């Protein structure tokens, strides 16, 4: 099941284990996946003398990880292959105190202070690229806080359970049986939701201001580029980011990053982190910037965990996120019929009728992908014609179960309280409204700049983009913006990297000229 090369890699990964681990496997005698699970786990266990398997019969297919004979709080209901294989490996390493994904001490203390007990369950699809980040973040919480337990569930093996819980998007996280989170999520975001629901016994008394030469807001291509260029100038640099990689992590395939013929969003994000680690940058991850103000010549940044950071230069590179329709019912039915990622959530709509809203490249690509598994795909475009590349439009036109309507405005997401049941749309030429009954909708109308925290300080345009000059300078001396959050045209990875470098060089130039 595991090839020779992978087994050799696992032997290297597990060579430094200091604790003994048992995969406590429980499987039904006649389950169709019984032998597959046992075989995979035994092959993994064979890669280290510190690993072993214990198999017993049960009414459902699952296993827990025991550390030195004691429950670890981490379990898997299903076979953790595909994208979740890394989650299994990291769970073992993290339980042994190893791995590069541990948060800094401030975030670790917040996790340890979370009030329990908390029983978390995450329903995933093994083809979902966003699910592992959530699974690994919650496993890490279980490692750091003994009162938190977490189990990954492969929704495909427990379809009746998925239907009963009305799950229509992954990852779906339940805390003690109640829905906590749906969709992509980072450790900081998940932790904040758990703190809000369960409370925490923590008082962050250290509010002393920390001084830097440059503060970078955002950890995507623009932010990492700005941090590296600033650090190479010998400056003291801090980066505040929810995650390294930013929106890039949601991109499945990347083929236009010059000199890199083909990569994935995850690989690029990992490479950004590795490159950043080569420089003395203070990485404050799993945080948001709550407020910004100017204090004489300095910029005072307050983070979501209460840290106060000062610097004469601030480079805003917070990127952009999925743009919402902002119509009635949309927020209510996210994860229950409203989705944004066709790769992750598409399988939940197999054989069903779905809509795609948006006629750009992303929308048409989503419609093409979904047409392969859905009974019918209806694409709605606000403008009078599709904006996607001609080759994509031609491909869509060949699909018998896909239809396109232009000059259409979505006015309402309609549901029955449990899930989405229809869309209300309006013909922009005639103002005629109609109700379109369907099972799901994928919103693909572009990105919205993550500039809310800065709008009281810098100028933004009607789209929310931060207005900059040709050198990434805003109208406030010492504040710069780069990448998708700014007015720079063409939102591309390679352009964001260049803009991040430009912003860093502009900040350094202003510094040596005495402007800041």
What's the tally of helices? Answer: 13
CATH class of the largest domain: Alpha Beta
Q: Could you say how many structural domains there are in total? A: 3
Strand content: 25-35%
Low-confidence stretches: none
Largest sheet: 8 strands, mixed
Calculate the mean pLDDT score and round it: 95
Radius of gyration: 24 Å
Helix content: 25-40%
Distance between the termini: 60 Å
State the shape.
globular
Number of strands: 27
What is this structure's SSE topology?
Elements lengths: L3 H11 L6 E7 L6 H12 L5 E7 L4 E6 L2 E8 L7 H11 L9 H8 L5 E7 L6 H14 L3 E7 L4 H6 L7 E4 L2 E5 L4 H12 L10 E3 L2 E4 L3 H12 L4 E5 L23 H13 L3 E5 L3 E7 L2 E6 L4 E4 L1 E4 L3 E3 L15 E2 L2 H4 L7 E5 L3 H11 L4 E6 L8 H8 L4 E5 L1 E8 L4 E8 L5 E5 L2 E4 L3 E3 L29 E3 L11 H20 L4
Parallel strand pairs: 1-2, 4-6, 5-6, 9-15, 10-11, 10-16, 11-12, 16-27, 18-25, 19-20, 19-25, 20-21
Antiparallel strand pairs: 1-3, 3-4, 5-7, 7-8, 13-14, 14-15, 17-26, 22-23, 23-24
Helix pairs in contact: 3-5, 8-9, 8-13, 11-12
Cofactor: FAD
Subunit structure: Homodimer.
Family: Belongs to the class-II pyridine nucleotide-disulfide oxidoreductase family.
